[in-house]
Amino acid sequence: MGAQDAVQQAVRDRELVVEQAHLDRVYHRLEEKIHEAEFLMDDAEKLAKVGTPGALAERDAQVFQASGYLSRLNSEFEDFLFGRIDLLTGKDGKRGPDGAFTATEVADDAIGEDGSTAVIAETLHIGRIGVLDTDYAPLVIDWRAPAAAPFYRSTPKDPGRVVRRRVIRSRGRRVLGVEDDLMRPELSATLDGTELAVVGDGALMASLGRARSHSMRDIVASIQAEQDLVIRAPAPGVTEVGGGPGTGKTAVALHRAAYLLYQDRRRYAGGILVVSPTPLLVSYTEGVLPSLGEEGQVAIRAVGSLVDGAEADTYDEPAVARIKGSSRMLPVLRRAARGALELGEAVPARLRVVAFGARLELEAEELAAIRQTVLGGTAPLNLMRPRARRLLLDALWARSGRGRHLVDAELIAEARAAFDEDVSDEDAFQDFLRAWWPVLTPRAVLAALADERRTGRWARRILGQREVRQLARSLRRLDRSGTGPLSVHDVALLDELHVLLGSPPEPRRPREADPLDQLTGLEEVTTYADRMYERRRDRAERLERERTEYAHVIVDEAQDLTPMQWRMVARRGVGATWTVVGDPAQSSWSDPDEAALARDEALGSRTRRRFELTVNYRNPAEIATLASNVLRLAMPGMAAPRAVRSTGVEPEFRVAGDDLAASVRAAAERLLEQVDGTVGVVVAMARREEARGWLAGLGDRVVALGSLEAKGLEYDATVVVSPAAIADESPAGLRVLYVALTRATQRLTVVACAADQPDAAGVPDLLRE
Ligand SMILES: Nc1ncnc2c1ncn2[C@@H]1O[C@H](COP(=O)(O)OP(=O)(O)OP(=O)(O)O)[C@@H](O)[C@H]1O
After folding, report:
1. Where does the chain bind ATP (predicted)?
2. Three-class SS of residue 717?
C-alpha cells in the first residue's frame, strides 16, 4: 500500500467509526422505542381487564398504534440508515417538525469572506423512517421528509446548502462502508473544528456495478436529482414521466408510491394501484415497496390480472392482440352482449302460462316487441332483466283481461299484485324467463365470440372477415361458459363486458358479524382487542381484495397499454390522481395514435405535469450504443438516454450453425461464467417454450423469455436470439427488439440466424450502424 493509500484507508476507518457511533445511538433509541411500544401493549392489556367501554376504546386505539409501530420498527431494522448530508447554515434559522433547519438557501455569512472556507452548521442522517432522540433532536430523517430532499437534489452545479453528501452502507447493526460526493469541492469546510473528510468515488457507481438478482432493489440511497423531482412531484392531476430504457422509470414510480403514502397517508389509504405489463415484472418489483417500509396499501398488478378471478399470462399472436386491443372491439362487444341474449340453449318461441286457471300465451312477435322496448334503454343487460320481466307480466295481464271489469284503482292494484305473484310462481314462467333473458356472464359472452358466424354478424362493418376468423379462432380455448385459459388481452374484454352486462344479482351472503354486537360479557370484551390485533394484520390484504377503485394509479410501461386496456385501467382510477411512466420507443402496440387517444380519454381533463429522465443507469455505453442503432430504425429522430458508465466490454456476436439450441446454450453458459448474477435469454415470442428446453439444467441464474416478457426486466447479461425474428414478429417488432437489446447491465451476446444476414463479424443487418 502506498503512502497515499494508507492515508485514505486511515480516513476511511475513522469515518466508519464516526458512522458506527451514530448507528449505535440510533439502535439504542430504537430499542427504547420498542420497549415503549411493548409497554403500550401491556398497558392496553390491563385497561382491557377493567372492561368499561371508555377504557376499551382507549385500549383499542393503543393496541392499534403500538402494534403498527412495532411491526414497522422490526421490519425496517435492516439497512436502516443509509445517508448523511453536511450542510451550511440556512438563511432564516427556522426548524421544521423534524428538527432540521428548513431553509434551502445558504445564509449570507455561511461562507468565509475569502469565499473558500466554511463551517458545517448541521449534519442530518437519512434513513427509511424518521427517529427522534429523547430531546426531539432528529437522529434519522425519513427519506421522504422535506429535510431529506437536499440529499437527493443537491448537485455540484446546484448544491444548495449541502457541502458533503454521504451514502452509508450498513447491514443490521454494522456500518460496512461510506461513499462521499462533494457538492462544493471549492470549499474547505470544517466540522467541529476538523476538516471534512471525503471517502470513495461516489455511491451511484458502486451501486450500479453490483450483480443483479431476480428482484429489483430500492434505490433509496442513490436517487438522482432529476428522479427526485418526479418522486416528490405534487400529487394532484397526472404526473407523466418519459425516458428511455434504464432511466429508472419503474424505480421512480415505486418510490413515488412510498412518498405519496408518507406525505398523505389518509388520502392514500384509499389504495395505490401499480399496473405492470407482465407477471414477471410484478414479481421482479414486488419487494421494493416493503423494503421502503410500505406494504398493504399498494397493489402491484399485471395488466392481465386486474379483473377479479382472471390470471392471464397467455399471449395472443400479434395479429389477434391487435384486434382485441383496439377500440374497434367496443361496438363489437356491445352487439355481442345484446346478441348473447339469443344464446340460451333452447329459447322458446312463445310464452305459455296458466294464471288463475286460464291459459295465457304471448306470441313470438309480441315477445320480440317487448325485447326491443327493453333494449331501447341504456342499463346494463343483466340489470334490464327486471324490466323485461315486468313487461312480460304487463302483457300477460293485458291478455288475461282481468283488469277490464274493475274500476277502483285499489282493487285493480290488488288484483294485479295477486296475478303477478301467481304467474311469477309458476315454473313455466320462471323457466321461460331464464331462457329468454338469461343472466349473462362476461366469460360466457366472450366465449360466444368463438363462433365465427355469430361474430361475423356482431362485427359487421367493424372487423374484416379475416379478423373475425382470427378473433373467433383465438377464443376456442374457452368452453361455452368461458372457462379456460385467458390471454392477457382477453382480460380487458372481460372487464368491458362486465360493464356492459352489469353484475348479476348475487345470492345474499350472511352479514359479517360486527364484533361490537358481541360485547356481551367480560370474556368477549377481552377477546375483542385480540381480534382487533389480528384483524389489523389481515386488513390491508382484505382491503386490497375488495377494492375496485384506487386513490392513485401508477401505470408502468404505459406505452404498452392498448386502448381497451386503458379503458379497464381508467375504471380503477375514476377519482384518482395518476402517475404514468413510459417510453414510446419501447411500445409493442402497433398503433400509437389510437393508444394515445385512449390514454387521453382515460386521463380526462386532469392537469398534467411532464418529466423526462435522461440518464441510462442500466446499460453500459457499449450496449447502449448498439441498441441506439435499432432505435434509429424504430423511431427515427428519437434521442437515446445517456449511458452513465462504460465497462470496456463490447457486445459479442455469434452466428448460429444448424443447431440454434446448441449455439444459444453455449452463449448462455459462457455468460454464466463471466457474470455473478443473472442471465436472460430473449427470443421471439413464438420460440419461448422451445427456448426453455434449450437451457434445461443450467440452473436458476438463467431464464428464457419471449421478447414481450422481457419488458422492464434486467439481467447481468443477456443473449438476444435472432434480432430479425423478433423484429419480424409484429408491426411494432423493431421497438420490441430495442427493448430486448437494453436489458443487460454488463454483457450482451447476440446470436444471429441466416435471416439476420450477419456480416463477416456476425453482426446482424438490423444492428449495423
Ligand atoms: N438513482 C439510481 N441509483 C441506483 N440505481 C438506479 C438509479 N436509478 C435507476 N437505477 C437502476 O437502473 C436500473 C433501471 O431502472 P428501471 O428499471 O427503473 O428503469 P426503466 O426506466 O423503468 O427501464 P425500462 O424502460 O427499460 O423498463 C435498475 O437496476 C435501477 O435500480
Report:
1. 243-250
2. strand
Helix (H, G, I), strand (E, B) or coil at 224: coil
| 248 marked ligand binding residue | yes
Q: Are 574 and 602 in contact (CB under 8 A)?
A: no
Q: Which residues of 754-765 are buried (b: 16+ CB within 10 A; e: fewer)?
A: eebebeeebbbe
pTM assigned to the model: 0.81
Tell me the residue type at 742.
Answer: T
Mean pLDDT taken over the chain: 85
- For ligand 1, residues with CB inside 6 Å are 204, 207-208, 217, 219, 222-224, 227, 243, 245-251, 583, 586, 617-618, 712, 714, 742
How far is residue 94's CA from residue 100's CA, in Å, rounded to a whole number? Answer: 8
645 CA to centre of ligand 1 in angstroms: 13
Q: How far is the CA of 17 from the centre of ligand 1 (A)?
A: 32
Cell 455540484 sits at which residue? Answer: 156
pLDDT digits (tens, 9 = 90+) for 264-292: 888 888 799 999 999 999 999 988 887 77
- Cα of 240 vs centre of ligand 1, distance in Å, is 17
Per-residue pLDDT tens for 408-434?
A: 888 888 889 999 999 998 999 999 998
The verdict on ipTM greater than 0.90 is: yes
State how far the Cα of 484 lies from the Cα of 495, in Å rounded to an integer.
16
Q: 249 among the known binding-site residues?
A: yes
Kindly give the distance from the C-alpha atom of residue 208 to the centroid of ligand 1, in angstroms, as a whole number.
Answer: 9
> What are 203-207's contacts with CB under 8 Å, separation 24+?
203/167, 203/179, 204/617, 204/644, 205/645, 206/167, 206/179
Task: Name the residue among 285, 283, 215 with its Cα closest to residue 249.
Answer: 285
Proportion of the chain in helix, strand, coil states, percent, rounded to 5: 50, 15, 35
Residue 247 marked in a binding site: yes
For residue 257, give the nearest of 224, 281, 233 by alpha carbon.
Answer: 233
State which ligand 1 atom lies nearest to the alpha carbon of 243: 21
Which atom belonging to ligand 1 lies closest to the Cα atom of 712?
27
Instruction: Walk across the sheet containing 238-243 and list its strands.
Output: 298-302, 272-276, 552-555, 577-581, 238-243, 608-613
Q: Which of 516, 444, 500 is nearest to 475 (CA)?
A: 444
For a mutational test of ligand 1's pocket, the pick from 205, 256, 617, i.e. the residue with the most ligand atoms closer than 8 A to its C-beta, is 617
104 labeled binding residue: no
Residue having the nearest C-alpha atom to atom 3 of ligand 1: 222
Chain segment 35-77, per-residue pLDDT in tens: 776 666 666 566 555 555 555 555 555 555 555 555 655 555 5
| Cα–Cα distance, 418 to 541 (Å, whole number) | 48
Q: Which amino acid is at 294?
A: E
The pLDDT value recorded for residue 345 is: 65
Residue 112 annotated as binding? no
Distance 250 CA to ligand 1 centre (A): 7
SS3 174: strand
348 CB burial (10 A radius; 0-12, 13-18, 19+): middle
Residue 80 DSSP SS3: coil
What CA–CA distance (Å, rounded) separates 634 from 732?
Answer: 8
Cα angle 26-32-33, degrees, rounded to a multiple of 5: 90
E-strand ranges in 530-673 read 552-555, 577-581, 608-613, 615-616, 642-643, 652-655
How far is the centre of ligand 1, averaged over its atoms, from the C-alpha of 247 (Å)?
5
Helix pair angle (385-400, 364-375), 10° resolution: 140
Give the confidence band of 113 by pLDDT, cuts at 50, 70, 90: confident
Tell me the CA–centroid distance for residue 245 and ligand 1, in Å. 8
Atom 14 of ligand 1: nearest residue by CA position: 246
How far apart CA 517 and CA 529 sit, in angstroms, is 14
Is residue 357 annotated as involved in ligand binding? no
Tell me the pLDDT tens digit for each residue of 678-730: 999 999 999 999 999 999 999 999 999 999 999 999 999 999 999 999 999 99
